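Schema walkthrough. Field components (list of strings):
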Amino acid sequence: MHFDAFDRYHEKESFVHRLDPRVKAVITILFILSNALLPDGAWIALLFAWMFLLAANVLSSLGIFYTLKNSLIALPFALIAVTVLFSTPGKPVYSFFVFSSHFVVSDAAIVRFVSILIRSWLSVQMAILLVAVTRFPDLIHALEHLRVPVILTTIIAFLYRYLFVLVDEVYRLIRAREARSASLHGHRAGGGIFWRARVTGSMTGQLFLRSYERSDRVYNAMISRGYAGHLYTLNPHEMKPGDYFTLAFSIALIFILQLIGRL
Amino acid sequence: MHYSQIPMHIPDNFLSLMVSIIGWIVTAVTLRFAISKTNKSLGEKQIPLMGVMAAFIFAAQMINFPVLGGTSGHLLGGALAAIVLGPWAGMLVMTAVIAVQALLFQDGGLVVMGANILNMGLITSAVGYGLYRGMYEQSKPLKLAVIGFAAWLSVMTAALLTSLQIWLSGNAELRIILPAMLFVHTFIGIGEALVTVAAVSFIMQTRPDLLGEGSESASASRNWAWVGGAIALAVVLFSPLASADPDGLERVAIDLGFIGIAADAPYQIIPDYTVPFLGETFISTIVAGVIGVIVVAAVMILIGRGLKVKSSKP
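Field assembly_structure (string):
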């Protein structure tokens, strides 16, 4: 497996790709916060938020509907949002009984339900765009600049760096399990759920031991290369005038978006 | 990469802003504490150790096993991480895992990440380690049984907290979300328990020396046992009560004003046609929120003091 097997980065030459990762991270967070602040049923503001997102898509030359195509990932949780339908008071539109419980769907509930889905969907798309236009190590570095404790960012950086190594290890374990799981046609191989869970647990324990020993070797290798508790980077990450301008412009747009939502 | 989602990673905009912010505050304070603790016990070795261990938890979540009717179970890892690495290191490792899930795979939101870390990383580690620590000197079968219960309970606690947060955000009725979440996670928790027990017993057989590492001093571990026991007791008592009479809980929350604080805050920040960010309601909401946080913190400190006195006596 290649080291960047998990990266969602899309190599492109574009304005957004060249922006400082800090700017991209801050705009993404502000955009999501702004979505959270919009009142229910502020359709025009949500439409403008979507335009903002589409513009960002275009500016990163990934294609205008790039994030739309990749945004179905958040769908499973929409199931939980269904409960919103029954928990907002308002003018009843529809009601039904399940197990002697009375459920009422009100007009306000429908507005709220749709608003939450749209807001959540826009937010996910922005997060998708962020990792598509920023290399993950750069993003981690940006978080460090944004005052996330160094130890956390370093653990995340290590997690990212060694994930593909350990996933290879997982594939080896799974391959070994499959190689030993022959069965006659029509007969089920292996034991019940407890037996299966025990096999999985032993694999997990094995993976733990291999990872633990690997972390020892990594530590020794780092020590022998002069590691003294700090990681250094050659990437200076300097904010250029264009970065400041883009940041200010985006903040202004998001602010206007909020005003539109309130009028 | 195949990796099945479990309905616990809250996406953005499913929690109100106030609940998200409180989640971040609790998480940040706990993490600060965890960082200073691990700094003392592990030193410079902690970075490679915890980094690779975070990758381990992430990778271990990919080892799935068929459960029933085409569904498959896999590890969440909070309890396991705390048992093999110690509670504070376990928390940091789980935080990194949840952060990467949110940042790289959009599994869980960014603004609500504080709440997600609290639910799936901090509480699971505390419950898992606390109960395990309480049984440290017992026989192996008893220890494994308690580990299984701790793993199951860690998942249930996370589900309970998740549903409470969504409810406080005004996005679900307790009588719907609480039974639904607890029911689904009863089974997810059983998978978690089985895999955690099998993994720990495997490590006990092959490298028992590793399980002592990252352990705390006698008094600290007794505190952990108390914390774990207290959370366990609270969940075990609270869940059935709340499931049986969610309306009662709702009434209590309304009386105390929690629902108002949590659910209405975001929509008050820029009230209609008033100067943004300076509205009276906003400031009063913030003040109410701050008072709430102080009360919670004071209760926690008092409980902590009480536990310390108790545990240092014998």
